[in-house]
Every structure is written in C-alpha cells, then in structure tokens.
Amino acid sequence: MNKNWLTATASDLGRGIETGEIDPVALTQTYLDAIDQHQFRDRIYASVTHERALSEAKAAAMRAKDNKRQSLLDGVPISWKDLFDTAGIKTEAGTDLLKNRVPSTDALVLQHATNAGAVCLGKTHMSELAFSGLGLNPVTQTPPNVNDYDAIPGGSSSGAATSVAFGLAAAGIGSDTGGSVRIPSAWNDLVGLKTTSGDLSLDGVVPLCKKFDTVGPLTRSVEDAAQLYAIMKNVPVCDLSPMELKGCKFAIHSNIAFDDIEIKPENAFGDVVEILKSNGAQVTCTSFDGVEQAMDLAGCLFTYEAYAQWGDVIEDNPGLMYQEILYRFRQGKNFSKAQYDDGWSTLLKLRRSFDAQSSEFEGLLAPTAPITPPNLQRLETDSDYFVRSNLLALRNTRIGNLMGSCALTLPTKTPSCGVMLMGRPFSEQSLLRVGSTIEAII
Question: Cβ neighbours of residue 157 under 8 Å, at least 6 residues apart?
C-alpha cells in the first residue's frame, strides 16, 4: 500500500497515472484496502463496490497503456453520496423509507464520470433524505468528524466529506440543497463546490427540493473540484491560471452572516480577509437588500416542497424516521400551495435585485458556517440544541441557495472553519478560477 496515494489530490493521482508512475488497479486496490481496514468503514460507507471499482480500474489501466485516457481523472477512485442512483446497487438516501431500493441505471452525472474514467468506490452515508446540515443519522450511521470524533461531520453529504478527509476516497460527490456540500466540506477541511440549480443534471438523483437541489464535489483542492465539475457536466475543464488580485473587488456579505457567530470561524474569516487585502484585493463590507426577506421565505419554500415530495411516503411509515427529521418534514404541512407559489414569485424578484447588486464584485465572502461542529451526544439528547444547531449550520450557506448563486467553500488555517465565496448564477468557471487563486495564497 502506498499511503501517500491516500492523501494526494485526485488531480495529482491522475497525473501519476498519465506518466505511468501509478497503476490504476494498484491505486484502486489501495483505496479499497484502506476502506476495508478502517475503523470507521461502516460509519462512512453505506456500501463498497469492490467488483465495479476493480473492473473500472482495469479498464482505465488499459486505456492508459494505449494512450487513450478519457480525462485527467481517468482511473482515479471517488465516492458517491447514497442518493445517486447506481445500477444494481442499493441507493437508500439514508432512510429506511427506501430500504433495499435498487435502481436499474446510474444517475446521469455518474454516467458522465464513468465515461470519463472515474472509478466508483461505493456509496457514502448521509443525513436522512438529505434534510439536515448536521450529518447526524441514528437510522443508518453518523460518520465522525475528522477533527473531533465526538462531534458531527456536517451534512447532508456527511460520508462524502469524511470519505475524503479520512483518506478513503480521492474525492467525493455530494448534493447541496441548503448547504449540504459546503458544511461537511468546511467542517472536515475540504473544498466544496455548490453549483447553480439546473447547471448539473439531477436525473437519477433522489430528490429533496428539486428547485433547490444541486450536485457538487467535495475535494482536496479547487483543481479537483474543477475537474469533477467538468466531468459531470461533460464539458472542457475551465481555466485555473492564477489571477492578479490587485484591484479585484470582493464584498463581505454582512447580512445575517455574522449574527451569533463563534469566535473561531469569525477569526478564521478575518485572517483570510487580511490576506486578500495584503495581496491588493479591495474588500468592502456590504449589506444586500432583500436577503432578510428571502430568508424569511425559506421555511415555506424548503419545507413545503420537501413534504410535497415525500409526505405520502413518510406518513405511510412515520415510525421509520428519526424524529427530528420527521418533525422538520412535517413543517411543510403548515404552508399552502398558494403561499409556496407566492413565495417563489417574490424570491425570483429578490434574486434579480440581488444579482444586480452583486454584479460589480468578483465574489461575495462570508464564513461558511457561523458555528463549529456541535457535539454528537448532546444533539441526540437535546432537541432544542439540535434545532438551533441545524438552523445555524445552514444559515450562511442557505443564502446562496435562495439567491440562486454558485458558491465555493475553502479550508482555512483553522480546523473546521471554512471561508465561502459566492458567485453569480452559472458563473462556476470564473468562481473556480478566483477560488484557485485564493486557495494558493491562504
């Protein structure tokens, strides 16, 4: 086993395959062995696809030998959140409501990744039906946080993040409806890309709120995120050449984002801002009209759609659900279709205004989460603590979902504290280039 492979970026592994220094089969077997021998294997992976992974690795090795590699990540092993359909493999979305659900085809983004040569290691645990930002799931498993085994990892892409953070995947693919890629990425010191709603296909992805659901990678570098984004969209990789930050304008998103913030994420964010300024960036603290109004709509828009999607299934067997998630879904019954429709009409107007206000900036900055990972045991025994922690965890990230933005979280020098960069809708490529430049200096 080459242990260095377990901490390398996916892109560096791909370059090693390109030069012939790394054999895709040996690489994949190294990851499979690491998974099988790991103390948290069953808490991170819902299933490990040994046969599929080795078959795909052998095909990648043949392509490498024949100089027919399909992408930089051809032969690189990655994990998939357990809401991406996998043909012939259970896809249960973290809930007993879907126990033993076996799709007949892969999700479209997984098909694209497979066509590009990415190796599927297996499916990772997640919050139940993706409806929590904490990653706590007493129904299936709760992965550990890489920085504190007594804390939760963040969700809902909890296993996706921890599979990478613990060296059990070169990268992970998750989903983000209100922060579910960015929170676990931030709390496990990873890069996480939240794409614009509608940018990457949701075909074959178990839904939560289709108008907010997005697909995104959790990785060790911005380059990895850019590579996986391109693969899943089936487009060329964007330009990541360094930018000149001198004169670039960034706005600190002051609306709500610093309310009740803990000292560690506040200081970590401040350190990044100072680094940006020292590199010539213009950083101003800005309040955007309409954000508070949009946040007031969130309760209706998220819970109404989630309950409309799953209510009938839930009420057939409510006892199968974790009570905190069940309660959250049932909040959707408090709103009418008319309220939901009116809410969306208002939100679309707010989005247009927000986009106009933010158009002059390279990106909007905020702490990814205002809190550090909460204690697992207390969450299981204190309902008020669970509710407050979940709302705070998702508060800053939810701004981007409501406003239709794409967003990127980057790790800072402070463990479990991320900095978030929000971009305009469908500006993923420019966001990644800016993010890569910032990553290099922080």
Answer: 81, 124, 126, 172, 174, 175, 176, 180, 181, 184, 185, 218
Give the pLDDT of residue 1: 60
pLDDT score for 194? 98
> Is residue 196 in some structural domain?
yes
Phi/psi of residue 403, each to 5°? Answer: -85, 5
Q: Where are the alpha helices (DSSP H) in 116-262?
A: 158-165, 182-187, 222-233
173, 255: one domain: no
Residue 3 has pLDDT above 90, yes or no: no
Does residue 326 fall inside a structural domain? no
User: Catalytic amino acids?
Assistant: 81, 156, 180
Could you tell me the two tokens for 61? 């090795």
The model carries a pTM of 0.98
**144 is in which domain, residue-wise?**
3-233
Quote the pLDDT of residue 398: 98
DSSP for residue 320: G
Q: Are 145 and 100 found together in one domain?
A: yes
Average pLDDT over residues 214-240: 98
In 3D space, the residue among 172, 206, 134, 152 whose CA is nearest the CA of residue 45 turns out to be 172
**384 in the same domain as 434:** yes
Mean pLDDT of 19-46: 98
Are residues 253 and 170 located together in one domain of the fold?
no
**Domain holding 382: CATH number?**
3.90.1300.10
Domain membership of residue 311 (yes or no) is no
User: Could you tell me if residue 325 is inside a domain?
Assistant: no
Over the stretch 353-376, which tens digit does the pLDDT of each residue have? 999 999 999 999 999 999 999 999
Do the Cβ atoms of 366 and 396 come closer than 8 Å?
Answer: yes
Task: Tell whether 228 and 261 lie within a shared domain.
Answer: no
Clarify whether residues 154 and 259 are in a common domain.
Answer: no
Tell me the C-alpha distance between 325 and 93, whole Å: 13
Residue of 23, 174, 46 lying closest to 100 (CA atoms): 46
What is the full DSSP assignment across 190-229? -EEEEPPTTTS--TTB--S-TTT--EEEEESSHHHHHHHH
93 and 229 within one domain: yes
Contact 126, 160 (CB under 8 A): yes
Answer whether residue 236 shows pLDDT above 90: yes
Phi, psi of 81 (to 5 degrees): -55, 145
Tokens of 335: 């709103």
